[in-house]
Design brief:
- The protein contains 22 helices and no strands.
- It is mainly α.
- It folds into two domains: about 300 residues, no CATH class; about 220 residues, Up-down Bundle (Methane Monooxygenase Hydroxylase, Chain G, domain 1).
- The two termini are about 60 Å apart.
Length: about 550
């Protein structure tokens, strides 16, 4: 029982180490990886090499699959290049299996020691996150050693040897057991290493070992499907395509496994090394052959998995992918995109308010619905940002986090103001049959146009963080205030002239001017956060 517990704890340590490495890499290089992948998708060879490189960096094809899936789910990458990247990831993890078979026991304590020192000493800095990566790599190396050591007494047990000795010829059964090994150990790499150990101790035959290796690769595809079971349709297609590629590879090689076993057994290399080399070359040949068929596979996956039906796009956030939360740069970009959607809805509310002012009371009901949409998006953004580990964010990411939450809050408050303004106009003007004076109506139209222009510029400044645009937005705020004050004085002059329409709508008119002034302040607040950036960030812009 203790031996089994040691094995399970080693597997858990491997999973945790992989998670730590992926998290650290994503926080330090997440944006760069995204950039590399986006630049590499134009040509299949580059996408293939990018998959190998990223997997070598994050030490896990599952991690690469999760990363690529999140990009596809957010429409940042097409399905075809994503499948090519996944094929490259399979080769990358096979190469890492060969590297990890070397005696790297001295690296584990070194990585863990320095990783802990850097992570605890400079947690929020890039060096601290690199310390997290080093700590994770050390745990992975340690876990793989522990898995092999924990599996050795199990394999030496007489009962287990009897079970393994029964695996003598049924290639389908052997492959399925290999898949189960990969799923249980949460890593095809661990399954392959255990298989190599079993072969070296003559517990299983060479042919069975090859079947287990092929099955372990299939198991990694099943793992990807399980990990992406909660993803949207686009994300599920990536996992399905990867699984089908692995399944086709199994069908292609298993009928010839006996011939391969006889041929490989003649090589002047020990069985453990041959198993590892077979794992590498099997994945390399399979993936190279499959690359030209990435496009047909993408079309097949699109037919098998249809897009999720969406009845109301506005009420459902589109870009807040939970899997991106481990990558601050990507998660913040998602939240910013969703905040821009809030701005688009607010622009619709402004257009609708203008219609209400010109005598369209039905638009007031539509504005209320749009304000509900703004509230839904704001709540989703707020909860999404709250799930981010803010204490681990770098200084720049922390400032961007604050900018997004502030912008979303300002837009939500602006939506409430526009809803109240449209309700006031509908109740106090349209329902009471009191119209604004011609001059007052023109002034309100002019202010609304300025507001709409400032809103659009504010969204641009929020997205680009451009200093020049921020200064222009600040000047626009001051011009609006001057215009607003001039129109207030003009309204008082009309009251002095005993303009009946101005007298009847005076309280409403002045109230709208005050509300518009507040709207303008909310829209233009983003300019000040951009202008308050540190000098080093301004130089980078």
């Amino acid at each position: 029982m203790l031996t089994l517990l040691n094995l399970l704890s080693a597997i858990a340590l491997l999973v945790w180490g992989t998670h730590i490495v992926r998290t650290g890499i994503m926080r330090v290089y997440g944006a760069d990886l995204r950039r590399v992948l986006s630049h590499s998708i134009e040509k299949k060879p580059m996408a293939f090499l990018a998959g190998i490189g990223v997997t070598a960096l994050v030490q896990s094809s599952n991690a690469t699959t999760l990363l690529v899936t999140s990009f596809v789910a957010q429409q940042l990458m097409g399905l075809t290049p994503a499948l090519v990247v996944i094929l490259g990831a399979d080769v990358g993890t096979a190469l890492m299996a060969r590297v990890l078979t070397f005696d790297l026991s001295w690296l584990s304590p070194l990585f863990i020691f320095f990783g802990v020192v850097f992570f605890l000493g400079r947690k929020q800095s890039r060096a601290g996150q690199l310390g997290r990566v080093a700590m994770g790599l050390g745990l992975i190396l340690l876990a793989l050693q522990l898995i092999v050591e924990a599996a050795r007494p199990i394999t030496e047990a007489s009962g287990v040897q009897v079970i393994f000795s029964s695996l003598t010829g049924d290639i389908i059964l052997d492959a399925l057991i290999g898949a189960v090994f990969a799923i249980i150990s949460y890593s095809s790499l661990a399954a392959v290493l255990i298989t190599a150990t079993l072969t070296a101790t003559s517990v299983i035959s060479f042919q069975v070992a090859l079947c287990l290796v092929v099955g372990a690769n299939l198991g990694s595809g099943l793992l990807a499907m399980l990990n992406n079971s909660a993803a949207n349709a686009a994300g599920k297609r990536v996992a399905l395509g990867s699984l089908l590629f692995k399944f086709i590879g199994c069908l292609a090689v298993l009928p010839f496994i006996h011939v391969l076993a006889v041929w490989l057994d003649k090589l002047p290399v020990n069985d453990e090394e041959v198993v590892i080399f077979f794992h590498v070359f099997y994945n390399l040949i399979r993936c190279l052959v499959m690359v030209p068929f990435a496009a047909p596979m993408a079309r097949l996956c699109q037919r098998l998995i249809r897009d999720d039906p969406e009845t109301d796009l506005r009420l459902k956030p589109r870009h807040l992918d939970p899997s991106a939360l481990d990558t601050p740069a990507l998660a913040l970009a998602n939240a910013a995109r969703e905040t821009l959607r809030m701005g688009d809805v607010l622009e619709q509310m402004m257009v609708g308010f203008n219609k209400v002012v010109h005598g369209a009371p039905r638009e007031e009901r539509e504005i209320r619905k749009l304000d509900d949409d703004v509230d839904v998006l704001y709540t989703a953004i707020k909860l999404y940002l709250a799930r981010m580990p803010k204490e681990d964010l770098a200084e720049e990411d922390s400032r961007r986090w604050a900018e997004i939450i502030e912008m979303a809050l300002n837009l939500e408050q602006a939506g409430d103001i526009i809803e109240r303004m449209s309700g006031d106009v509908a109740d106090k003007s349209l329902a009471a049959r009191r119209a604004f004076s011609p001059a007052g109506g023109e002034e309100l139209d002019a202010l609304q146009q300025q507001l709409l222009s400032n809103l659009r510029l504010a969204l641009s400044v929020f997205l680009s963080r451009d200093i020049t645009s921020a200064k222009r937005l600040r000047r626009g705020k001051h011009r609006f205030r001057i215009t607003n004050r001039r129109y207030a004085h003009a309204h008082v002059n009309r009251l002095h002239q005993q303009n009946v329409q101005s007298i009847e709508t005076s309280s409403l008119h002045l109230g709208l001017l005050g509300d518009m002034k507040r709207l303008n302040s909310l829209f233009c607040a983003v300019a000040y956060s951009v202008l308050e950036q540190p000098d080093d960030e301004r130089e980078n812009e």
